[in-house]
Design goal:
The chain is an alpha/beta fold and about 260 residues long. Helices cover about 45% and strands about 15% of the residues. The protein contains eight helices and seven strands. It starts with 7 loop residues before the first strand and ends in an 8-residue tail after the last strand. Bound molecules: nicotinamide-adenine-dinucleotide.
């Protein structure tokens, strides 16, 4: 795979599972990586050569500050990976017990956060003539999410948004935008969902994550690096003719849906 030498990459949700794995992989391939997350410090998951900035993706003003700071200090921005996300509440009652507050919280982070990121980096990437945005959607964007309706809806919207961003980026420049759709990747988010499933009623516990993982055609949940490998490919020049497309990384789970 081609080197990312001379390229600058911004990762959201960079202190957690898939985002951190992507940040580390891009840095190993030579990119200057700015990992961001909601907390003030990243913990210990990131390589020492990665720069860390605090960014709550639902904050318009923080996005503007972070992108301006990167453009000013590094002079360019080649890659944006929108990996920040939350699972929201998993409720046995599903639709009927999802509060408007829960719905808005999930939409605000998963969808508004992705929209803001795409919008803020676009002028920088267009001015330099190229760039790659990778939005982390989900397999959940394709199927009903009975017990977490907001999550599935937010990821469906991210998938659709990706196509508008891809077309916008192709006008006068080669800014690409694609969506990645993980199945079950072993991260904190999956641990959170598993805990919530255990706390809900019988109807939900019968579809536990463990049971689901055991039915994955390739036999196990994926690792953050499994997802990062696809994201890094889409961010690379080798994917230069790919835009507005959807890519699953799910061990074949969609085959059994
Ligand atoms: N793990 C999976 O199986 C799976 C499946 C499908 C999609 N995804 C998606 O992959 C992405 C990464 O998730 P993950 O599995 O690595 O989970 P994770 O919980 O390990 O990481 C998510 C990161 O997002 C950060 N975050 C949450 N709210 C934020 C905010 N407002 N601003 C900035 N950062 C915020 C968290 O602090 C965390 O570091 C998410 O968008 C998730 O929806 C994951």
């Amino acid at each position: 795979m081609s080197s990312f030498g001379g390229k600058v990459a911004l990762i959201t949700g960079g202190a957690g599972g898939i985002g951190a794995a992507t940040a580390n992989m891009l840095a190993k391939r030579g990119a200057t990586v700015i990992a961001t997350d909601i907390n003030t410090t990243p913990g210990t998951v990131l390589q020492s050569d990665i720069e860390y900035m605090q960014l709550d993706v639902s904050s318009e003003s923080q996005w503007q500050q972070v992108v301006a700071s990167i453009a000013q200090r590094h002079g360019r921005l080649d890659v944006l990976v929108n990996a920040a996300g939350i699972e929201g509440k998993v409720t046995a009652g599903g639709l009927e017990t999802t509060s408007l507050e829960d719905w808005r919280r999930v939409m605000h982070i998963n969808l508004d956060g992705t929209f803001l990121g795409c919008r803020e980096v676009m002028p920088v990437m267009k001015q330099q003539g190229s760039g790659s945005i990778v939005n982390i959607s989900s397999l959940a964007s394709y199927y009903p999410t009975l017990y977490s309706v907001a999550y599935g809806a937010s990821k469906g919207a991210v998938t659709q948004l990706t196509k508008s961003v891809a077309l916008a980026g192709s006008q006068g420049a080669k800014v690409r935008c694609n969506s990645v759709h993980p199945g079950v990747i072993a991260t904190q988010m999956i641990a959170n969902i598993a805990r919530q499933l255990q706390e809900t009623a019988d109807v939900v516990s019968t579809s536990s994550i463990q049971r689901y993982a055991s039915s994955i055609p390739l036999g196990q949940a994926g690792t953050p690096d499994d997802a990062a490998a696809l994201i890094v490919f889409l961010a690379s020049d080798e994917a230069g003719y790919i835009t507005g497309s959807e890519f699953m990384v799910d061990g074949g789970s969609h085959l059994l849906r």
